[in-house]
Amino acid sequence: MTRDLPTHLSRADRPAQLLVAEDDQRLLASLADLLRGAGHTVTAALGGPAACEALDNQDFDLALLDLHMPEIDGYEVMAHAQDIQPHCGVIVISGESTFTSVSRALRRGALDYVKKPFAPDELLETVRNVLGQRSLIRDHAKVQHRLKKSEALHRYLVNSSPDIVFVLDKAGRICFINNKVNSLLGYTPTDLIGEHFGRLLDEQDITRGTYALQDASVSADNPRTLEVRMKTRGSRRANRHFEVTAFPIDPDTWPHTNDPEERAIGQRARIYGTARDVTERKEAEAFINFQAYHDLLTRLPNRALFKDRLNLAITQARRNSQKLAVMFLDLDRFKVINDTLGHAMGDRLLQAVTRRLEECLRRGDTLSRFGGDEFTLLLPAIHGKEDARQIANKLIRALQPPFQLGDHEVFVGISIGIAVFPDAGDSLDQLIQNADIAMYHVKGKGKGDYRFYSDTMSIDTANRLSLERDLRLALDRDELRVHYQPQVCANTNRIVGLEALVRWQHPERGLLYPPDFLPLAEETKLIDDLSERVLAKACHQVGQWIHDGHDDLRLAVNLSPIQVEHPRFVHTLMEQLRTYQFPPHNLEIEITENVIMNDLEQISQKLRELADYGVRIAIDDFGTGYSSLNYLHRLPIHTLKVDQSFIRGIRNSEDGACIVNAIVAMAHGLKLEIVAEGVETDAQLCYLRQLGCHQVQGFFYGPAQPAEFIRRSLGRDRLAQNVTAV
């Protein structure tokens, strides 16, 4: 069934007639309004059946179809349109972007493909382009029709064709070629007359192209159609893709003409053909294929392509009795940098990390972006663990130098889990999962390292999942407890401060201490909720004691690196203090040296802001980290906490005593207070007093205790000594 346009109104003189088919009512209405606003006449069809009915009853210039619709899908609608309205063009609008779906749509006659969600300007531009193309095609058809009626227009029309038109002799030499070859490939017709057609073909397509044109089975009813690449003139222009259609010429049917040149061509002509430029379509197909199997930000293979290559590598390893390794890589501190500097800087960092990692790889290795800041690495055909160990060390060293992101110099590390085939798994999923498990064990041990998977890790992982579930329930059930360890004046034995320490009253395992669950809390991002709960309890309780007359009582709290590195750390902490009405000058936060040195610029700014509010800053475990005098001098630090490992050196007459001497002397010179941790004996206390150490804490005065015990201790002038350690 075909319909002719009204004689008084041509297609060029009226708005384009568009059909929009979509099974989502809201999206259908939105699309229709957008296209009407651009001046088109739109018929909206809700679903495939409605679209087919509209095609039966109305003439359209262009149809915009969703692929996945119930009852009748987009492919069936396209087939129906081609049967009754072959002149109607089709644009596919779909959320499906796999190469198979797109390629199938293009083969079925779709002129373009727009992926949901789409930008309105992009859609309108696509519609304009396709309508323009359809107009050219219709014009070309008219030209072909007129060619039969007017021999005088022959050469003009051929040369005006949007395709290259050519005629070959029996040997494949060019007898005629139209002017389109100049605009598409840069040659003039006179350059090519008498030359073999193969001169135009890309070297890789010469054999295939010339053989196809000489195939004896080619006839007027069975023309040869093939896609080839043609060479452009000059090295600056890339070769282009063409769809060539050719069929033989019967010399007896060549039209008689008075033009000697045309008579000569007719005597030699044996093949007539057209070459349509399909470069844009081929590039679109290549891009869609690349998009389906690569990460567009880093240009690395994505998860799907990585799994394909890993499956192939496993098959080859089994056949050749070889080993291979799968690495799971996770960037350390990426989230902090991304949150602080923004996603644009985070993307630049991922690209810079990718370049450094690629420099460490061997030929044949596959690095992929698995998602977010996670990467996977396939090392095929290795001899053993030592090969994987060398690569892992190279990767870690490659990321140690800082990255320059604009005006910011940032550091990012990497944690690597390794699973070796077949020892750590003999299937794709096992290898990836076990490498992931090994990577999380690295995270739990301090990051910035690598570990090979072992069977015991699976047991640890099962326990970890159980403990994670219980920890989430603990927050809901209020099972967390706060104990306080007194910080005592070394000379008067009076309590001057309390360090808040979290305990977990587990319903089955009893009282759990921080090393049992805090690493898991940081890994699972529960540390923020846990810390907020502990701070609330401590501020409430210690705040009461302050208001009851202990005006100078100091509350010391430990903060995790995740908390301190968060961009809104200062704002969040001060909001909490205001909520609990806790005096800022009675709070002392304890952080480690490593937290400061990880990002000295950002952490320095945060500490200065806190100091301006009156909050005191203490360096915990001093002497076990960077111990940089530079940051001690530059930052608003009030207290150094000497690590208990050095205090034990006093008892054993080890070098630790010399370290304590040096730390105390340095603190006096910098006018900082000193708190000695882990004091257990009278001898240690006497030694520290002689050095001029201001405060001590440890089992000499007792372990951390619940609030009720501390409340009674605060009522006494002096704290009792030699409390039995727990």
TrEMBL record:
Residues 150-205 form the PAS domain. Residues 322-455 form the GGDEF domain. NCBIfam families: GGDEF (TIGR00254), sensory_box (TIGR00229). Residues 464-718 form the EAL domain. Coiled coil: none annotated. Keywords: Kinase, Phosphoprotein, Transferase. Residues 17-131 form the Response regulatory domain. It comes from the Bacteria. The keyword Mitochondrion does not apply. InterPro entries: Biofilm_reg_signaling (IPR052155), CheY-like_superfamily (IPR011006), EAL_dom (IPR001633), EAL_sf (IPR035919), GGDEF_dom (IPR000160), Nucleotide_cyclase (IPR029787), PAS (IPR000014), PAS-like_dom_sf (IPR035965). It comes from Marinobacter xestospongiae. The modification 4-aspartylphosphate is found at D66. The keyword Kinase applies. This is EAL domain-containing protein.
